[in-house]
Write a structure and sequence with these properties.
About 30% of the residues lie in helices and about 30% in strands. It is an alpha/beta fold and about 250 residues long. Helix 3 packs across helix 4 and helix 4 crosses helix 5. The relative contact order is 0.19. Bound molecules: adenosine-5'-triphosphate and magnesium ion.
């Protein structure tokens, strides 16, 4: 029997502040943001352009050091770790899916995924086998040998997702993963993210502008001008108490 997926809070940020210097002044892009995300949830972060969504994801995932505040990720106080340890944390526990796919143009679909897995300590043949399975799971079993130039936008995004999911990350960050895709491919992608949350217990944090994706969210967080304005759960928490049955 496979182990139960993890439950509970995966990521908690408190008082996150991020400023950028522009000319002589600083702009405050995150204004003391508190945020948390749970295993098994697809948490969507929505808000206008420039509101700080990508900055928030970067601070939560160890890519961009906040000026103030704390990020506790899988129980680690992320920003107190040394740079090397933060890099290792990302490698071991985080998957990333960005809008531009970030694929290597010279590599086949199979090699894109294999290369990343080799860095996690698998042998070459284990990595290839796991990569093949991950690509089959996103419906690309027939495209293993193709390079990005030979793939459609939706297929490229699915390679990027297979690459992120192959190592079964406990934290999965997606920044506008469907913005380059038509409605149908967008749905395929969001369903894959949902599956990572439900089947693997990943905490999936997905930034999107796309209102069509709201239907797939467990929780929707609205951010505007560096502040969280609204935080709505739209499905019961996975470990919420079952409703009491009242016997007649
Ligand atoms: N490296 C940087 N230097 C200076 N300003 C920055 C930097 N990165 C982001 N900003 C500013 O911070 C603000 C928030 O940027 P961010 O990328 O987080 O927005 P966003 O909500 O992801 O927007 P979009 O929906 O357009 O992707 C913007 O006003 C942007 O200009
Ligand atoms: Mg952005």
């Amino acid at each position: 029997m496979s182990p139960l997926p993890p439950q509970g809070v995966a990521l908690r940020a408190t008082g996150l502040v991020k400023r950028f210097k522009t000319g002589r002044s600083h702009i405050e892009v995150l204004k003391s943001v508190d945020f948390d995300a749970r295993h098994g949830d697809l948490t969507m972060v929505m808000g206008p352009s420039g509101s700080g969504k990508s900055t928030l994801v970067a601070c939560l995932s160890g890519l961009l050091r906040p000026d103030d505040g704390q990020v506790s990720a899988l129980g680690e106080d992320l920003w107190t770790l040394k740079t090397g340890a933060i890099d290792r944390f990302r490698l071991n526990h985080c998957g990333f899916i960005f809008q531009g796919f970030n694929l290597f143009s010279a590599l086949s679909a199979l090699d894109q995924v294999t290369t990343v897995l080799k860095h996690t300590g698998l042998t070459r043949s284990e990595a290839r086998e796991r990569a093949r399975t991950a690509l089959e799971e996103v419906g690309l079993g027939h495209r293993l040998d193709m390079r990005p130039a030979e793939l459609s936008g939706g297929e490229k995004q699915r390679v990027a997702i297979a690459r992120a999911l192959a190592k079964a990350p406990r934290l999965l960050f997606a920044d506008e993963p469907t913005s380059a895709l038509d409605g149908e491919n967008g749905q395929v992608v969001i369903k894959l993210l949902q599956r990572a949350a439900k089947d693997q217990g990943a905490a999936v944090i997905c930034v999107t502008h796309d209102p069509r994706l709201e239907a797939y969210a467990d929780r929707i967080i609205h951010i505007e001008d560096g502040t969280i304005l609204d935080d709505r759960r739209v499905s019961p928490a996975p470990d919420a108490a079952a409703p009491q049955l009242i016997e007649a």
